[in-house]
């Protein structure tokens, strides 16, 4: 049996309260209240109000307001700026993807839009570093999927899948100018390029969607690993040829600001604070059967002193990934101010000397094998000056 679904009318958005539920012949009708107490203005001038996008069945016309529950196929909650985004550049309409992203700059850059939700913010009502990193990861995966080279919709190309290869990140550097607030809408641009003989570099620029203010930048290096042997692998010529058409030679972070300096190893004697017994859970695993790299950030910050988390904001973070982690591992997190680590550098990556700098280590608790080394920089929050 073939089902008929009516086309989506992006303009059919009803703002305000849905009320006055009536009954007729045992069926409930949904009816918007258009009296003075209900806001029916559909102007897109309030970024924090939600709307209902109604996708009706083939019996409903755009002019029809009421319909039975059975006639309403989907009633997803969306941000009202969706209409504005759809109309802001009509020439790119055909390039908009299912993930609410699109290609820009002659398809060299992929742009994803995110709306900051209440469960993605921290105590200060701004997004957490973990949320920001999730935005970056989601954008790069959607980029690969929409390039047309992804075989399994998780970043692996056709030739990679034939060779049982997956992507693994080896280093990430993030610079944050400010953290977006609840209700704000941001756009993330991403692209990738070759990096040496055996890797690629992926960059991101994060902007306020409306003002175009740059609020964060990031760069990373990636290589390949055999998903069965769990060993690093070279990029074959066949895989390289799949990726060459999408290489884009541009740096998100200026070359002189890229953190190439070694992150010194913490030891039991140099670490100032510890967090023992960190246990990965089932929901920390990704489709490649290891802990998702974003999860490490939360565990690294577990050993940062509480007063630092409360009074300072992280403005820079560099992560070195040394080995993967599985669900059966037991971890410990260690942190220390850089002044307590011999030879640690004062990396001035955001052109302003940080108020604090920390060195971090995440390792296996039993064997002491290193998982991640990290360096973070912090500035005192405005309301604490």
TrEMBL record:
Its EC number is 3.1.2.-. It is an enzyme of class 3 (hydrolase). It is found in: Plastid, Chloroplast. Its main location: plastid. Residues 109-242 form the Acyl-ACP thioesterase N-terminal hotdog domain. InterPro entries: Acyl-ACP_TE_C, Acyl-ACP_thioesterase_NHD, FATA/B, HotDog_dom_sf. One of its GO terms (molecular function) is fatty acyl-[ACP] hydrolase activity. Pfam families: Acyl-ACP_TE, Acyl-ACP_TE_C. Gene3D superfamilies: Hotdog Thioesterase. Residues 270-379 form the Acyl-ACP thioesterase-like C-terminal domain. Keywords: Chloroplast, Fatty acid biosynthesis, Fatty acid metabolism, Hydrolase, Lipid biosynthesis, Lipid metabolism, Plastid, Transit peptide. GO terms for cellular component: chloroplast. PANTHER family: ACYL-[ACYL-CARRIER-PROTEIN] HYDROLASE, OLEOYL-ACYL CARRIER PROTEIN THIOESTERASE 1, CHLOROPLASTIC. Plays an essential role in chain termination during de novo fatty acid synthesis. Belongs to the acyl-ACP thioesterase family. This is Acyl-[acyl-carrier-protein] hydrolase. It comes from Glycine max (Soybean). The gene is LOC100791811.
């Amino acid at each position: 049996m073939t089902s008929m679904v009516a086309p989506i009318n992006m303009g059919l958005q009803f703002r305000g309260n849905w009320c006055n539920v009536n009954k007729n012949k045992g069926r409930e009708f949904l009816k918007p209240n258009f009296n003075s107490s209900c806001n029916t203005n559909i102007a897109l001038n309030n970024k924090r109000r939600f709307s209902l996008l109604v996708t009706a069945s083939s019996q409903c016309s755009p002019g029809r307001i009421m319909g039975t529950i059975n006639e309403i196929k989907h009633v997803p909650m969306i941000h009202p700026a969706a209409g504005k985004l759809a109309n802001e550049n009509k020439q790119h309409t055909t390039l908009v993807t299912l993930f609410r992203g699109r290609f820009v700059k002659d398809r060299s850059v992929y742009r994803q839009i995110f709306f900051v939700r209440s469960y993605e913010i921290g105590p200060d009502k701004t997004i957490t570093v973990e949320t920001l990193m999730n935005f970056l990861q989601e954008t790069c995966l959607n980029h690969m999927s929409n390039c047309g080279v992804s075989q399994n919709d998780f970043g692996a190309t056709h030739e990679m899948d034939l060779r049982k290869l997956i992507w693994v990140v080896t280093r990430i550097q993030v610079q944050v100018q400010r953290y977006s607030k609840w209700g704000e809408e941001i756009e993330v641009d991403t692209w990738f390029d070759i990096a040496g003989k055996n890797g690629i570099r992926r960059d991101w620029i994060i902007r306020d969607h409306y003002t175009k203010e740059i609020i964060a930048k990031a760069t990373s290096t990636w290589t390949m690993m055999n998903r069965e042997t769990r060993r690093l692998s070279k990029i074959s010529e066949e895989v390289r040829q799949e990726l060459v058409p999408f290489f884009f030679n541009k740096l998100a972070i200026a070359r002189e600001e890229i953190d190439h300096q070694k992150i010194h190893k913490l030891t039991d004697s140099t670490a100032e604070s510890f967090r023992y017994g960190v246990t990965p859970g089932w929901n920390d695993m990704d489709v490649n059967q290891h802990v998702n790299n974003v999860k490490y950030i939360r565990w690294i910050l577990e050993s940062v002193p509480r007063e630092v988390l409360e009074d300072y904001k992280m403005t820079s973070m560099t992560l070195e990934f040394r080995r993967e982690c599985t669900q059966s591992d037991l971890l410990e997190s260690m942190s220390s101010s850089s002044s307590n680590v011999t030879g640690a550098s004062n990396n001035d990556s955001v052109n302003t000397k940080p108020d604090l700098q920390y060195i971090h280590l995440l390792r296996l608790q039993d064997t002491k094998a290193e998982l991640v080394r990290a360096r973070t920089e912090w500035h005192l929050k405005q309301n604490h000056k």
